[in-house]
Specification:
The protein is of the alpha+beta class and 800 residues long. The chain folds into 6 domains: 65 residues, Phenylalanyl-tRNA Synthetase, Chain B, domain 1 (2-Layer Sandwich), CATH 3.30.56; 93 residues, Nucleic acid-binding proteins (OB fold (Dihydrolipoamide Acetyltransferase, E2P)); 202 residues, 3-Layer(bba) Sandwich (Phenylalanyl-tRNA Synthetase, Chain B, domain 3), CATH 3.50.40; 66 residues, Phenylalanyl-tRNA Synthetase, Chain B, domain 1 (2-Layer Sandwich), CATH 3.30.56.10; 202 residues, BirA Bifunctional Protein, domain 2 (2-Layer Sandwich), CATH 3.30.930.10; 88 residues, Alpha-Beta Plaits, CATH 3.30.70. A 7-stranded mixed β-sheet has the order 28-31-32-38-37-36-35, with helices on both faces. Strands 3, 4, 5, 6, 7 and 10 form a 6-stranded antiparallel β-sheet that branches. The protein is elongated.
Length: 800
Amino acid sequence: MLVSYKWLKKLVAIDVPSSELSEKMSTTGIEVEGVSQLNEGLSKLIVGQIVEKEKIPDTHLTVCQVDIGEEEPIQVVCGGKVVDLAMKTIVAIPGARIVGNRKIKKGKIRGVSSFGMLCSLSEIGVPDSVIPKDYQDNIYRLPDDALVGDSIFKYLDLDDEIIELAITPNRADALSMRGVAHEVAAIYDKPVYFEKKSLVETAKNVSDVLSVEVAAKEIPFYAARVVENVVIKPSPQWLQNVLMNQGIRPINNVVDITNYVLLYFGQPMHAFDYDKFEEKTIVARLAKEKEMITTLDGEERSLTAEDMVITVADKPVALAGVMGGQSTEIDDNTQTVVLEAAVFDGQLVRKTSSRLNLRSESSSRFEKGINHATVIEALDYAAAMLTELAEGSVLSGMASVGQLQLADKVVSTNLDYVNTRLGTELVYTDIEKIMAQLGFGVSGDASGFSVSVPPRRWDIAIEADLVEEIARIYGYDKLPTTLPSTGGTIGELTRTQKLRRKIRSIIEAQGLSEVISYALTTPEKAIAFNQEPQELTELMWPMTSDRSVLRQNILSGMLDIIAYNTARNLKNIAIYEIGKIFKPATDETAPLPNEVGKLAFAITGLVADKDFQTKATPVDFFYAKGVLETLFRQLNISVDYQATKMENMHPGRTALILKDEEVLGFVGQIHPQVAKDYDLSETYVAEIDLQKVEELWQTQIIFKDVIKYPAVSRDLALLVDVNVTHDDIISVIEKAKVKNLKDIKLFDVYSGSTIETGKKSMAYSLTFQKETDSLTDEEVTNYIEKIITALAIDLNAEIR
């Protein structure tokens, strides 16, 4: 935000150096990035009037006799395109300094003596982007009332200082001269002086020529006034100076008035040529998909259903809050003007301007918010200026629809709350004084008071906001400096921290390396590997489409990391990550997403490289499962595995990790198509819920006496159908509830020519042990027979 210091001093009665004001503002919450003196480095630039001119043959040059207020005119050779007799312009006399510290000297051009220079605006430091188009690369015409021989600075307001403010999104109220004036008035405890304009209306009513409608909830308020009999012409010099000095190019009196009101009130406005309307009704609505509009910059743009448009005869004539349309542009033939003032949804304005790469002064203000209390005042002010500067006649009344939020916001707190947070000893009279400086109403006493916050400060909503306002006006430098008080507490890790450290130790001991992947990803990757995909949490203003939603799994990001590394010829990769995923909020009072801690790993390539003694060993399902078994064993958690089918996972090599029928996570191979999409070889992954693991984790190990009596092992080879799984057999054995059975281990699986078709052999080692005395052969034989009987009944198993 660029602020004219001359203009600011008209709004607030201050007379301090700009350096002091900058320091004050920076220490009270609005940072000043810099102050520039517009005439810095310029000297001996005066008003001159051309009294004679003569073209130099075969050149573009003109020899001018210029009156600079001395006895005799001086001769100047000029290369400007437009050089008129009696024209008053900028003259740099010998010894003058112009932009770039260039010194003007007497000299000869094409053999003709020149005793100075006629200047364009760019030659005295005005940026090309704000110079009126008629004076691009041409000498500048000064006002007719400029006195010959005077310094040009006062006529172009180059004796002004421009203060550049870094406005944060929460202080969008300072994106206007009135907002900055309120801020400066609060700092110096001064009143503000805002000019009032009386609006004279004709007998003709606006309803006779125009009506407005709103067909979208994203446009809470829309209003328009009609001004007839306007005369399009250049703006007066003072208005052009204000706009150029604050970074806006003057166009004509109508457009310049809307830009002036934007700077003054912070209220974006637009002016339409009413005679170009095909109907008398303006409709503000959301755009249709693929609807087209040609904006003022001459670009034809395709719209989406998230864009807001202003339409006439169901045709877009403006991109709401961003830029007007070319079809209703103000031009030299305009006679009737429709002035628009509205409130648009900031999020949609942001999306539109970002998608179309179309940033404007209007869009930047709508994105951050505008003052509802001055919307109508700004509209009336602009209409009054049209009567003054464009000779217009304002029709009676305005066409409007919708509601404005005009009520003061009431925020309550107490003195103890304020002093506790600031470390101060303020009394209630101090609070009253500070609120008076801010222009806020206050009622109550030290035990509890309420502050009425006007609509111009929509950033204030809670107690903490009030404390911040009190602190910055009271003075951050006055707040006491104290060291934090801490008790003699012993620092220790939380249970969650202890678990994560232990997991890192166990996982890294198995050769995996820790990585950190992005929490933001694409909508498709966010729900990959989810058994039950949930509603996504999207960013309103993502930097890129690749980072637009919060992830609901960690594996997609890890696969990106593996793909990046394998593309650079790193084939054997074993990585893990401890991070969070984000699920939709379930509590309406707490709309933030739920964060769930997860452990995930991914392994691809070879477990062991080939050498002269051993074969290359590729990673497989059992290697990945072994990593988990080691982890759970060292955490003293017993888990089961159950084959399953999941989206994006191999249908025959994926298992759920269970604890008493509760799912802790899954392990398996990614689907071959997913591997192909990422350009990967066989890759095995796992993801487990750390919150559930933490609930099961027993930090204290309960010691059991070592059994003194010997264990007895028996081998059992079974002939079963090929579709019978290891889990089926274990389930039947456990269901038989055989006493003193301590361990079951599968040590051989065989199928071949010696086994009948449709059968396979599975050999188990069963271990029995009694805690009170030694087992007898008869007891062990009974146990084995009970197991064999159960297997024969449930699985039709035969003993080989």
